[in-house]
């Protein structure tokens, strides 16, 4: 079976940093994996709707009842 990881090098680096297989794979499989260079806005500067949309995209349960701080916590710890 072929690997389903789009950016193997990034995946391995994230695993070496202690990330879970799921989180490392999710990051390494983003369309612009390894290209952003940290240019994304910090969670605190994003709207609650943007955080909600990101939480929905990665499947965080209970997101509809979360406030902004809870969404940030959930995204950082998923």
UniProtKB/TrEMBL annotation:
Residues 1-25 have a biased composition (Basic and acidic residues). It holds the Pfam family DUF7218. InterPro entries: DUF7218 (IPR055642), Rho-like_N (IPR011112), Rho_N_sf (IPR036269). Residues 49-75 form the Rho termination factor-like N-terminal domain. Residues 1-50 are annotated as: Disordered. Transmembrane segments: none annotated. This is Rho termination factor N-terminal domain-containing protein. The lineage of its organism: Bacteria, Pseudomonadati, Bacteroidota, Cytophagia, Cytophagales.
